[in-house]
Amino acid sequence: MGRGKIEIKRIENSSNRQVTYSKRRAGITKKARELTVLCDAQLSLIMFSATGKLSEYISPSASAKTVFDRYQQVAGVNLWQSHYQKMQDNLKRLKEINDNLRRQIRQRIGKDNLNDLSYEELQSLEKNMESSLQCVRDRKERRDPYYYYSLDDSTVGVGNGNCSHVFALGLQPSQPNLQGGGGYGLYDLRLA
């Protein structure tokens, strides 16, 4: 008694569909292997499941590139031309971006001629530099806020003429014979 034919249509249940795919994939791969051995055929079999998993079989006597190259010759199509053109377009776009970024870097470090820039471009460059400088200041302050504030306090003090803390102690030479007692006493150390 033979099997009845099943109607070929999409299987609605996803788990049943995956099981059927796995079984039929194994069957197709087996048939491809047999065809390669029996007939010395070169073939390439590429399958993607509904989940995107790749399954492939390539004849042991060939590589995927040789099979595709032979297909291009016989069919008269060029599989790689559109891909090559896309890569060339992408390369051109990336070179333009790279050139633009290099020009901006040269402008920011002062190695590019700023005379060629318009007034608006100069204003934009100035704003960018100010925001970059503010970012650097913020980063310095976050890294060591005590150093940053102590530096500010000391520069303000020097600016106001209050320099007494710059030279905290000054040692004055003393004459032991004149001071009445040998060595240095507390009165020998005084603030400068």
TrEMBL record:
Record InterPro entries: MADS-box/MEF2_TF, MEF2-like_N, TF_Kbox, TF_MADSbox, TF_MADSbox_sf
GO biological process, one term: positive regulation of transcription by RNA polymerase II
Any one GO CC term of the record: nucleus
Chain segments annotated as coiled-coil in the UniProt record: 77-111
GO molecular function: DNA-binding transcription factor activity; protein dimerization activity; RNA polymerase II transcription regulatory region sequence-specific DNA binding
Protein name: Uncharacterized protein
Membrane-crossing segments per the record: none
